Amino acid sequence: MEGVLKNLEDYWYLVEDVWTTGVLGHSVGDILIAIAIFGVFFVLRGLFTRFVIAVADRWVDRTETKIDDYIRDAIRNPLRFLFLALGFFFATEYLAFEDVARTFAQNLNRSLIIIAIFWALFNCVTPVSQGLKMLERLLTPEILNWLIAGAKTAVVLIAVATILQTWGIQVAPIIAGLGLFGVAVALGAQDLFKNLIGGMSILIERRFGFGDWIKVDGVVEGTVEKIGFRSTLVRQFDKAPVYVPNQHLSDNSVINYSAMTYRRISWLIGVEYRTTHEQLQRICEDIEAYISSTEDFAQPPAAPLFVRIDSFGPSSIDILVYCFTRSTSWGDWLEVKQALAYRIKQIVEGAGTGFAFPSQSVYLETLPPAIDEIVASRKNGDA
Question: Residue 77 in 3-state DSSP?
Fold first, then answer.
């Protein structure tokens, strides 16, 4: 019995030793208290989100400007993360690490603060860019998007460099090493740099912008959705996305249909050869009068307008109708063109003539003999 009590007593001493020794010289009780401290800040994070940010949301919703909405959205998650960083800081301060463990805890606390700060700065790049809308006429939205992407990349790189410096890692040697590595990579990544330079030339020359309808013969035709560092996203009219390397768009001829001032209609209308001089003159004058009196068409001298006899074709007298619509939208252009087609048909039919169509005439110099003649000829020959 005494042996059992002795063993239990030794086991209790062992439990006390484990409890007091714990991890890294801290008792299990201290570790549990540190976890409880972190848990308190975790709960405060939820309360902060529920009450403080909710009040800020109501205040922001009452304002007319959108800048405060963007800033609120930018700092919301970093502030929530900062509560976790505060909880970790007070927990490690309570444990009072020493030597290497203390240095590690301090560096980790600094890193968490750096992450919170640069996370907020990263998110603020977009709302700050909203305040630069006035520069869109000077820089264009595409260039602003490139600047925003470059600013976000710079924030991330500075954050990484700051964290590395916090842990005692020198950044300068890494940059020097990356420079040598970059020379080696550049030799095998020439196309990447060509596409990057091509994208810059597209933006500087303002060849096209977001939403423009472009066509590159043999490459793509569609609407521009995004101009990236390496490629441009063009969505075809069948809604299929096409990622075109910027080099193809900078080196080839690009037709930007959205930059048209007016949209052209060019027709050859063939009327029958029996049409008289007076009928031809009436048709041309009536078509020109209709186009000149309709607001949907651009008028000279802003845009040319011709309704003229063009040629004598194989089976028709061809009348050239050459004009421009004010709207460059494809749908509007189709409607105007359809209305013009209706009116031309009325004019031609009203003039008492008609539209010609391809036809052929066959002329015979002599007619073959009839069957009766052939039969009679044979009978006479037999006789």
Answer: helix
